[in-house]
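Subject: complex prediction, re-run

Hi both,

The earlier run crashed halfway through, so I resubmitted it with identical inputs.
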Amino acid sequence: MEYAVCSDGMTKKYGNRTVVDNLGLRVHPGHITGFLGPNGAGKTTTISLLLGLLRLDSGICEVLGYPPGDHRGLKQIGALVESPSLYDHLTGIENLEITRLMRGVPKSDLGRVLSIVGLTQDAKRPVRTYSLGMKQRLGMALALMGEPRLLILDEPLNGLDPAGILEMRELIRELPKKDGITVFLSSHILAEVEQIATDLVIIHHGKLRYQGSIDGLVAHEDSEVAFRVNDPKMACELFSKSSITARVEPEIVIACIPHIEIPMANSMLVHNGISVYEITPSQKNLESRFLALLEDA
Ligand code: ATP
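This time it finished cleanly. Structure:
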């Protein structure tokens, strides 16, 4: 299977309004793909189509090689759509047990999912005593039951406080590393997605605006790249000597180069005795590219 999700011409209308418009998705297995778009872009509708909760009006779509909603595919998908539906008066583990029985998952899975989401200690407390972050993590535990190959998460960080966001982000980032899970998660905030995902799908008014790696979003033009180095002033001089526009900021030097030239710039610095600790496309770039994509629509 080449793609975890593959669609062509995927279209959904409400009345005569097209809210998902001709989407051709390609989600790579084992990657974390951020599904990004402003409010009302059509993300939840798309996710509902992938899960078979809504029917396509036209186009084709396969999720893990099966049509959306096919039980052979659904068995391998974990989903967290908006906030999880939990029984407040039951404990964490009792909530998990209900889903476990419904899905026919082995009992041993309870311990596994509780430990992944870090709720082992709190499993026997009623859910009404949980913080929002803990409830969200319990929702993730529900989604992870039965060892899914694909996790579809709709705005998983919505409503969480900064500590909750941090916990959830760490949790999601570890999944592909540990279990090879493919993660497809929606958000309307670029900065949020950028810290979790390696790949991006951007939609606006239901139409695909970008699909590819996060790095690729700024790859094709001269962009600002931040090099964290031991000697930013010296690095800046070296860039200037190579006719690269650069400036020094505290602890970093920002060079204006096309993405493809980053390895060359890096090796030039290293050959001249500079220690390079980190290379990142500057946040401003990603944001301006993202906004430009939305404006072009
Ligand atoms: P958000 O980030 O706000 O959740 P979204 O990208 O998930 O937005 P959707 O919820 O998919 O967007 O909505 C896409 C568009 O479809 C919106 O304009 C919304 O008003 C409309 N829409 C969603 N559900 C229905 C429905 N059941 N009937 C009619 N219009 C709908």
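The two ends are 32 Å apart (CA to CA).

- K.
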